[in-house]
Amino acid sequence: MESFEVDSAGQGELLDELLRLQAAMETIVVPELVEPLLSIRLTMQQLKVLGIILTDADGSTVQGLSKTLGVSLATMSGIVDRLTGQGMATRVEDLNDHRVRRVVATDRGREVMQELLAARPQLSRPPLERLDIQDLRALTRGVGALLRALEAEAAAVTDADASADAAEQRPAH
User: Fold this and answer.
1) pTM as predicted
2) Most buried in the list 103, 106, 137, 168, measured by CB within 10 Å?
C-alpha cells in the first residue's frame, strides 16, 4: 500500500484519500455484507416494506405502503401477504379506526432486520491491534472528530425541524 503523507496534504487531498480508503475497505467487506442478504428469503420490495413498518411503531396501512413505494394496492397486498406468511409482519386493527388494518413488524421481522444491520462493517480488535500506536491514536482522534461532526449535523437537522414545526404552529396574522 502506498504511503500517504498526511501532514503535507491539503484538505481536498485528504478527503480524496479518505474516500479512496473507504472504497478499498468496502471492497474487502462486501462479502460480509452480502452473505446475510442472500441468506434471507425476501425480495427487495419485501425488505423495503419491512424497513418501513419497522420505522413506525404504529405500522402502516397497505394503502400507505402502496403510495410510499409507488405500487398498486394489489401488488402491495401480495407483498404484505408474503411477509405475514413468513412471520415477519402481521395485520392488526387500528386503535383509532376499527375499520382500518395496519401492518406491523413481528419480533421475527425485527430479528431479521437486526441481523442484516449487524452485518455492517465494524472496527474490530484484530486489524486495530496491527496498527502502531501513532496510527491508532490518529485514527481514534479522527473517528472521534467524525462522530462529533455527525452529532453536530444531526443536532442542526433536529433544530431546523423544531424551528419549522414551531413556525407552522404560529397563528397567521
Assistant:
1) 0.59
2) 103
